[in-house]
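Subject: sequence -> structure tokens, single chain

Hey, anyone have a minute? Need the predicted structure for the following. Not urgent.
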Amino acid sequence: MKPVLFIVSQGDEQLTSQAGLGLIGALLGRTTLRERLDQVQIPTRPTPEIRHSEVVAAMTGLVALGKPDFEAVETFRADPFFRSALGLEQVPSAATLRQRLNGLAGWVETIIREESAALVARHAPALTPCYEKADQRYGPWVALDVDVCPFDNSDSHKEGVSWTYQQVDGYAPIFAYLGEEGYLLNCQLRPGSQHRQQEARPFLQQTLKLVRRVTPAKLLVRMDAAHDDIDNVRLLEATPKVD
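Reply:
Had a minute. Here:
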């Protein structure tokens, strides 16, 4: 067989290595996140030139690409695919991204968590029980796994970085995952030195409310021994359909 003779020509197509952003943008478009965010008024930006929703969407795109640093957005400011995939009229600068997200802190976390839960409720194909018996008095249970996962942020000098129980300097965020599929339903960034049980009860309360936006199923909450605390026990025992 003779070698194939290839003819190389220049076309007008635009190639991208971030095609997955198309899915991220489509999922964002199936939420009411933009409408809710743009209704938020903060004292530092009463009439922003770039809408809150565009700032949050741009940051979401960066996180999805594994580039959570503000400066990473500069790479995409002239990228037409990044802008169109996320439905942005403008791509904010790194300075705008940082300043606006700092300004939005404390104003929009509830909106983002609720919209995230609604997205799971609409589009998760299944919530597989962790344990199921024929006798319906005992199940099935859908797992809600809650745990802290220390990060290694050594030599970063970021605010909140401190000595973790894993013996590294970093953060100690807490996460809540739903179902055997492990849908991330809630999370909270914490200083590395914070004990896992500290402020766990309000985190659990918030998480249980988010769960009910996704499923009415009976829950089995699974935590490790650091959360073996009477406050947790009382909260879970008082919550219907939770073990």
